Amino acid sequence: MQQALDAILARATEEVAQVQTTHDLAQLKAVFLGKSGEITQLLRQLGRLLADERKAAGAQINITKQAVQALFFNRESDIKELALTERLAAETIDVTLPVSPDPMARLHPLTTTQERAMELFSSMGFRVASGPDIETQAYNFDALNIPENHPARAMQDTFYIDDTHLLRTQTSPVQIREMREHGVPIRLIAPGRVYRCDSDQTHTPMFHQMEGLMIDKDITFAQLKTLLQHFFNRFFDREMRLRFRASYFPFTEPSAEVDVWMPEKNAWLEVLGCGMVHPNVLREVSVDPDEYVGFAFGMGLDRLAMLYYGITDLRSLFANELAFLSQF
Ligand code: DAH
Predict the structure, then answer these.
(1) Residue nearest to atom 8 of ligand 1 (CA)
(2) 250-293 per-position pLDDT tens digit
(3) Range of the domain at 75
(4) Of 63, 90, 117, at which residue does a domain stop?
């Protein structure tokens, strides 16, 4: 009996060592330990033995059975471990390989500029307002103290839609809409698209402005200057030199145009128009100019983006060239 058992163990040891897959291992296991496997057969034959022989033989068979079970158990974990090691080796990622460029969406430089400007003014208590791109002559001109035959109408190369409607040439009409709706005191900015029939390196038929308006009881030109100085310092992240040049707008008195000094260009560049809101404009929205005063300004957002990012041709902002846009 012991000889037979030793032979089985020896064969099992040899054959188990050669098996490479868990599937083959399961098949081999059936040969030794299955219902009609060799060891099971031996156990069945015990019945034919005498009682005292049976006990000793049973113990011998069980020892071998446990040894064979251990063989299969150990081989199975070896095979699994090997498979895991191989899989890990195959899945190794070489972090030094060049990445395939994954085109990522970016914000348009104008969007970023507008959001920066809005954030800065919001932090100073200015609410963001908006108005329609298609305006009436009444809002775009009349209410802003630009009468019918005023040269300023001709100055702005307007796109007319019909006798009363036009594409707004400026964001200033938002002042009127907002004061009519909310009254005063008021403090807002209104960024948006404006349109003029004009096109060259520094003009496009559609461009962007941001209107500002602040009306209250004791507003002064000095406050306007302080506000703008603060805004430009923070927008450009450096101490900016501003120059207020006396100018003319029908809806402000006095009026000024503001230039910023650009050391890298060694030049003053115009960035906005501003002034104290004209009494006629306040009367137009039923505000008593003896009680309320305030300032307004309108800045070119495209110009601001160009200065901030060092863009030289305004038209490139609207050309939808990915190569250009992906720089920002
Ligand atoms: N609307 C003017 C323009 O488009 C800019 C402007 C100037 C706006 C003075 C204002 C202002 O609010 O006070 O040229």
Answers:
(1) 298
(2) 999 999 999 999 998 899 999 999 999 999 999 999 999 999 99
(3) 2-90
(4) 90
